[in-house]
Amino acid sequence: MTTLTPVLTRNWDQPGSFTLEGYGEYAAARKALSQDPDAIIQMVKDSGLRGRGGAGFPTGMKWGFIPQNDGKAHYLVVNADESEPGTCKDIPLMMANPHALVEGVIITSYAIRANHAFIYVRGEVLHVIRRVQAAVREAYEKGYLGKDIFGSGYDLELVVHSGAGAYICGEETALLDSLEGHRGQPRLKPPFPAVAGLYACPTVINNVESVASVPSIVANGADWFASMGTEKSKGFGIFSLSGHVTRPGQYEAPLGITLRELLDMAGGIRAGHELKFWTPGGSSTPIFTAEHLDVPLDFESVGAKGSMLGTRALQIFDETTCVVRTVLRWTEFYAHESCGKCTPCREGTYWLKQVLKRLEKGQGSEEDLATITDIADNILGRSFCALGDGATSCIHSSVKLFRDEYLKHFEIGGCPFDPAASTVWGSK
Amino acid sequence: MNEEESATMSTGYPPEVRERLETDAKEIIGRYPKARSALLPLLHLVQSEDGYVSDAGYEFCAEMLGLSKAEVVGVATFYTMYKRKPAGDYNVGVCINALCAVMGGDQIWDELSEHVGVGHDETTSDGKVTLERLECNAACDFAPVMMVNWEFFDNQTPESAKQLVDDLRAGKEVVPTRGPGKLCTFKEAARVLAGLPDGLAGEGPSAAGPSLEGLKVAKAHGWEAPGGAVSDR
C-alpha cells in the first residue's frame, strides 16, 4: 500500500506557515550556496526530479542546458500561471508555503548562475499574489535575497510579476513574451529558452512545485528523494482530487500511487454513486474510466495506457455526468484560450466548439463524430504549441470510450442526463 | 466643463494624478532589466486608477515605456483581466469551466445572472457589480467556485451566490473564504496586481478545507515522508 508523504504540504495546517517565522531559516539555501553550483545541478539530476508542470522533463537536465561562461545574463522564470482545468496545487502551495518556493528560487538561480529571477503568477489569485509578495519582501529584509546572500558573494533579485488572464501564458515561451510586455503568444523553438529565452538570454523556466521541491532535495539528499516514487518517476507530488469525491483535496504522495488508493483516502466517490470517467492530469490529458483505477500514476504507466500524468489533476466525474457536455465545456475553454497565432488551433477549436454544441443538443448526426475526429486529427501535431494538442485529448478519448453516449444524444434528440443530478446539492 | 478640463480629459490625467502614477510607475519599471516588461503591471496600475483601462491609461503606459498607443492597446486587448469599459466596484465571477459547471456552476450562473439582471461582462445600473463567466481559477477541489475581485469564494450554491451579490450591492461586509478579513474594491485589487502590496498578506488562513484533506489523512495514520523529512528547520 502506498502512503502519503507530506513534504510541501506538511506545514499547511499551521497558522503563519506562510511567514518566515513559520517556515524556517532557509537552511537548505545556506547549504547550497556553500557548494559549487554544478554540484547542485548534479544533485538535482541524481534525485530524478522531473518537471511538475505537466511535461515531466528532467529538471536537473534542463538546468544543465544553460551554457556557462557565455558572458550573458541568465534568468530563472518560475511558471506560476497555473490555469490548466483541474489543476489546483500550485495556488494553495503558494498561499500556504510561499517560502518553499522562494528558497527554491534562490537555490535554482544559484545553480544556473542567474542573478535575476521572476515568479510569473496568474493574475486571478489576489491573495496568493499577496502571500508571494510578502514572502519575497521578508526574504529581502533578512538578506536572503539581494546582495551577497549568506555572505557567499552571490547576488539575486527576485520579482513577483502578475499575469492578466491568459491560459496560453502557461506555455513557457508565451510566458516569456508576456513577461517581456507583449501579447502572450508562443515562440518558435528552437532556439530553446536555455539558449535564447528571456531577453534572448539563457533562461530556465520551471513550475512552482518543481522549484519548491528543490530545498527538500538539498536538505535530505538526492537518494532520499529518489527513494520515493517509481523507477523513472521519482519523488513525491501533489495529487489534486476534485469533482464527485467524498473529500476532494490535495494529497501529497509518491508518484506511482493509484487512483484506487487515493480514492480510499478521500472517502471514495460521493455516496451512492460510481466512477464514470476522470482525467489523470488536467483537461489536456485523455480521459480514463474505472478500468484505469489501478494504473500507477507515474509518467510511464499513465503514458502506456494512452494518457499523460500531466499535473496530477484528477477531475473525477460520476455516472450522473454527461461526457458530451463535459467535453463541450473543455472545448469552449480551448477555443476561448487559443491565442490565434496558428491556424489549426484557432480555427480547429472554433469548429470543434460549433459541432459539439450541436451534438450536445441532440441535433447532430453520426457524421459529426467523424467530423470532430477529423478536426482533432488536423490540430494534433500540427499546432504551434501544446495548447492545440491538449484540446484534442478529450475529443479523441471521449469518442473512443463513450461513442454510444454521443449516439444516444441524436437518438433521443437531446441530452439524456439531468444536469441537476450532477450538482453538489443535486445528490442530497 | 471648461476648456482646461476638456483638454485634460483628452490628453491624459490631471497633473496631480499623473504625478502620483508616475512615481509608482517608475518604481515598478525599475524592477525590470528592460522597461517594456513593466507593461502588464502598468496596465494593472492604470486600472487601479480608473477601474478599467481608459484612454488616458493607454497613453500613460505608452509614454512611460516609450511605446506607441497602438502597441499598448494591442497588448492590453489580449488579456481578459483588463477591462475596456468602466466596470463595477465588484467583479463577480462564476467558474463555468467543465468541472465547476457540472458541480453546479452552470445553475449558479443562470440563477445569478437572472437575479441580478445582467449578463457576462455587464454591470448593474448602480455601478456596483460586474458579472463575468470565468474559466478555471485553480480551486477545483472547492467547486463550485466564485471569485470576487479575484478573491476566493469557495463551495458556492445558487442561494449563497445571490446573497453574496445582494450583500455587495447593499454595502454589507463580505468576507472571502480564503483571503483577507475584508474584501477590497476592484481598483484596490488592481493596485496589488501592479506590484504594490496592500499589507493584507498576513490575514486569512494558511490553507483551508480541501487543501488540508491529504495532510489530515497522513496525520491520522502517522504517515510521513521517509526519515520524517527535514523540511527546513
The CATH homology group name of the largest domain in chain A? NADH-ubiquinone oxidoreductase 51kDa subunit
CATH topology of the largest domain in chain B: Arc Repressor Mutant, subunit A
Low-confidence stretches of chain B: 1-10
Identify the CATH homologous superfamily of the largest domain in chain B: NADH-quinone oxidoreductase subunit E
Helix fraction of chain B, binned, reads: 40-55%
For the largest beta-sheet of chain A, the strand count, sense and barrel status come to: 5 strands, mixed
**What is the chains' assembly state?**
heterodimer
Helix content of chain A: 40-55%
How far apart the termini of chain B lie comes to 64 Å
Report the uncertain regions of chain A: none
At CATH level 3, the topology of the largest domain in chain A is: Rossmann fold
How would you describe the shape of chain B? globular
Strand content bin of chain A: 5-15%
Proportion of β residues of chain B?
A: 5-15%
Helices and strands of chain A, in order, run as: HHHHEHHEHEHHEHHEEHEEHEHHHHHH
String of helices and strands of chain B: HHHHHEHEEEEHHH
User: Which CATH class of the largest domain in chain B applies here?
Assistant: Mainly Alpha
Overall tally of structural domains of chain B: 2
Structure description:
Chain A is an alpha/beta fold. Helices cover 43% and strands 12% of the residues of chain A. Chain A has three domains: 20-220, Rossmann fold (3-Layer(aba) Sandwich); 236-318, Ubiquitin-like (UB roll) (Roll); 323-422, NADH-ubiquinone oxidoreductase 51kDa subunit, iron-sulphur binding domain (de novo design (two linked rop proteins), Up-down Bundle), CATH 1.20.1440. In chain A, helix 7 (126-141) links the parallel strand 2 and strand 3 (157-162). Chain B is an alpha+beta fold and 233 residues long. Chain B contains nine helices and five strands; from the N terminus they run H-H-H-H-H-E-H-E-E-E-E-H-H-H. Chain B is globular and about 60 Å long. At the A-B interface, helix 5, helix 7, strand 3, helix 10 and strand 5 of A face helix 3, helix 6, helix 8 and helix 9 of B.
